[in-house]
Amino acid sequence: MWQEFQNTYKGKKVFVTGHTGFKGAWLTQTLHMLGADITGYSLAPYYDNNLYEILSLDGKCHSIIADIRDAQKLKSEIKICNPDFIFHLAAQPLVRASYDDPHDTYSSNVMGTLNVLDGIRHLEKAVSSVLITTDKVYENNESGTAFKESDKLGGYDPYSSSKACCEILIDSFVRSFYHIDKYDEHQKAIGSCRAGNVIGGGDWATDRLVPDIIRALKKNESIEIRSPQAVRPWQHVIEPIFGYLLLGQQLTRNPQKFAGAYNFGPTKEDILSVLEVVEKAIDIWGSGSYDAKINPNAPHEAEILKLDCSKAREVLEWRPVWNVNQCLQNTMEWYRTNFENPSGSEEKLNEQIRSYIDQWEAAKIA
User: Fold this and answer.
1) What stretch of H or E contains 355?
2) Which three-class secondary structure state does DSSP give residue 319?
């Protein structure tokens, strides 16, 4: 698999939006290891001790610090890069922040995606594009049923709604400008990805479970849990990253077969409650405590969210490699390294990527 990825991405021009963010940094580092010629386009990092700086990504890609909402700037940079691949991750990614500033959320997520799609439209070459949305794009009645890609889109909160809008927008652009039946004319292959709740080293976002756990553990404080019984599809960030790379690869090989939307999530055994994840994290860390602080007046967040990832398994032959215990073990190990030996943070991340590759290869052989 890794050799096939190298054959696909080595020396190829890859345009990544959101490369300074948590997931974008993991993707950019992986593409660098594959030998890609990377252009990154994103706002400056929000957090101290961020992966963009830890991994020295400004020296591993042509880094453009700019706003995804600047349509002319983005279009110009896409044209200058003239990419073979585009991975669009730039977004306002937080549910609770979307309640605080819905305008920023919709303008970043919807208009940002529109600007990327329009930038693709002006490229005069074949390009495969993977656009990242979220598992929260579905109309969630919280029945506990795992959502398939064909299920109704929706969204209670502004974040979820904005990402559902992105999926509708992508579908509209594909049918209007990049219809798969006319691929030989336009040569634009588009896929969208809906990943579950990702965890992993280097995430410092506010109001996310693992960063909140880590901050509390570092300060020897009790971990405050908003929704202990909320159920989510937890997975390590490297799982969807490899899904995105696999989709990008397959879009170049057979766009008519592989274009479309895909869920990337864990097996049903790894869909756990917040409380279960907190207890596992404390056990791995070796210390810690928690306190459930449920605010009945807090903004609405879904209690149950599950994904059906059978399409990714059957069509792309993608499947998760690490179970939730491995995900949490690797995540907590990275943060411990970052606290105790900050200079070893990059090597720890690279080590985890290599370990994942080895387990992926072993699973394929088995």
Assistant:
1) helix 345-365
2) coil
The structure tokens 């869909």 sit at: 271
Structure confidence by residue, pLDDT tens digits, 187-209: 999 999 999 789 999 999 988 99
Residue appearing with tokens 């609405």 = 300
Instruction: Please provide the distance, in angstroms rounded to a whole number, between the alpha carbons at the two ends of the chain.
Output: 14
CA distance 128 to 171: 15
Q: Binning pLDDT at 50, 70 and 90, where does residue 297 land?
A: low
Closest CA to 78 of 112, 35, 51, 50: 112
Name, in order, each residue with C-beta under 8 angstroms of 8's C-beta and a sequence gap of 6 or more.
245, 248, 249, 252
Query: Which of 244, 326, 322 shows the shortest CA–CA distance to 34?
Result: 244
- How does DSSP classify residue 72? H
d(CA 116, CA 138): 23
> What's the token pair of residue 167?
């999926």
**CA–CA separation, 260 vs 277, rounded Å?**
32
Sign of the torsion angle spanned by Cα atoms 140, 145, 147, 151: negative
CA distance 364 to 366: 5
6's tokens: 């190298």
The kind and range of the H/E element at 143 are none
Q: Quick one: what percent of the chain has pLDDT higher than 70?
A: 98
Q: Which of 113, 60, 61 has its CA nearest to residue 88?
A: 113
DSSP β-ladder status, 188-195 and 260-264 = parallel
Q: What is the pTM of this model?
A: 0.96
CB neighbour class for 5 (10 Å; exposed up to 12, middle 13-18, buried from 19): buried
